[in-house]
Structure prediction request, 668 residues.
Amino acid sequence: MMDILQIFLSESFWAASLRIATPLIFGVMGALLCERAGVLNLGIEGIFAAGAMAGWMAVWLGAPLWLGVGAAACAGAFFGALHATLTVPLGLSQHVSGLGITMLATSSSYFLYRTALPDVTSPPRITPFQPLDWPVVSDIPFIGPVFFGQTALTWLALFTVLAVWWLLARTPLGVALKAVGDNPDAVNAQGLSVYGLRFGAVMAGSALMAIGGAFLTMSAFDAFFFGMVNGRGWICIALVIFASWRPGRALFGAILFGMFDALQVRLQTEAGAVVPSQVFLMTPYVLSIIALVLVARKADYPRALLQPWFKGQR
Amino acid sequence: MQIEPRQSQNPLIGLLIPVASALVALALAAIPLAFAGADIGAAYQQMWQGVFGSRFAFTEMLTRATPLIFTGLAAAIAFQARLWNIGAEGQLYLGALAAVWVGTGMIDGPQVLMIPLVIFAGAVAGGLGMVGPAYLRTRFGADEVVTSLLLNFIILIFVQMMLEGPFKDPMGLGWPQSEPILDSAALPKLIEKTRIHSGLILALVCAVVAQVMLTRSTWGFRVRAVGANPAAARHAGINVNRTLMGVAMISGALAGLAGVSEVAGLKGYLTADLSPGFGYTGIVVAMLAGLSPVGVVISALFIASVFVGADSMSRAMGVSSYLADLTVALSLICVIVGGFFGRFRIRFGQGAAA
Prediction:
């Protein structure tokens, strides 16, 4: 018991929680944008991989880090545009199209990586984002290492939450975006473009997902591995439902998840001799399912989620 | 330009779409091939040779198609009821785990007893793997897409735990693998000196039974009614939740059989890398088949050809074998786009305004 208390009091635990939460924050915000506009994007798992690959590859080819982030965002927006084309004007099954995007984005990333590096045994490394070194504030005990010792991408993630919240709650565009996920006929009657809004939301959301993937290769690690996304995308889809499509609650969910994951790693080293390590490795996925079950009935689904809308049809 | 639904369904279109989609996906694979700097003509020829070039190559393709028929059927039946079983990968491993549990020495007996027992155990384990998510959906409204997907990760970690713990082969030189399946529990080989085994026969039987059940029985009618319109089905007196649970059990059982067939027919023991994503590929197989069980057999043969052909091409020409996964993903995208043109027609110009 004392051990757990000690974990919660350590700076490294809270710093790790926020670090683990960062890719999820990007992913959750991306998925939230898509779903608020009425489009479920199950391409997320593959878009994470594409972002991780594109960002890493750009930097490995000599681009500066931020250009790598831009490359990841472009890769994400590309697959987002493909998903939007299939699900918005063509109105195809969002489930199947999303799974197709995941397969396509994952396999093309792996194929490109293998084509560029046919016979490397250990993945080549890049110099990733470094923890920021702020004057004065970095030296504050506890707060300093936890918040100000993060890399720039973590700050970008927190800023993204603020931006998405502001967009949805405070701007006319946000109102239109939410309306297109609830009642596309009303949006159309207002003379706004249902297709345009949904396309934009899915592309922007997918770009955010890809930046979440880029965090993995450009901040959390410094190389690209096959299978490194490891279900993070699906966890984001569960977290969005858990958050009832609200940005603030989504941030809370992602950080809570980061805490459990950080705790899991620490308990594993403490209790590793007694309990098989796999029990701890399972917990993130088990927790996601439990979270989903707890809120499923109460969840405030966007009313037009999964429903195609065709121009000129009622 | 205007999009309008087709008034009548031409049965030929239903056949044409998957064939055209497969061909378009194969043609699109030329883009990554060109990107990798390969001689495109030679690459396609090598792929063809890799499947049809020899008797052995062809049996390898059939061996690869076997688990895909099972997972394709699992997806097809579930999707017909609009139950999104994306967890076939996990159910496959549950089936394989159950097969090695009963088939590696827990009991021993004659073949006529052991083989059905191993098959039954794997089917039940796989079925239970989907009954869980289906229950969470019908009881709590939790989306089965997400739960069945997440369950894949949980089950794979669980299998790794078992392979490092109670299921570990003490003679395995420290590798995390199960003990070998007893000879009495192994599915017999079909042809000497090839890897093709009787799991294929089982898969074909399942496909025919599934086809008859879906199209000719009242159960099949209930499944399709629930898939087409759950509210109307409920109105007509169909117990929607019970139908969904039944579909979940059967769909999961079929995925479990893929695991049984791989472990008891092909590999002989269980490792954590038994399946290179057969569960997920099954979704593509099912979609390419238009969710028809007999169609699943044909599309599984096509997808298996892509994998085996690309493997052979990859060995000969040094192009990454991820080309196969890429082609399979393209097939899925092509077939759903093709489905759109099957259901709708696009009109251009003046006539559209009317």
About this structure: The longest helix of chain A spans residues 194-220.
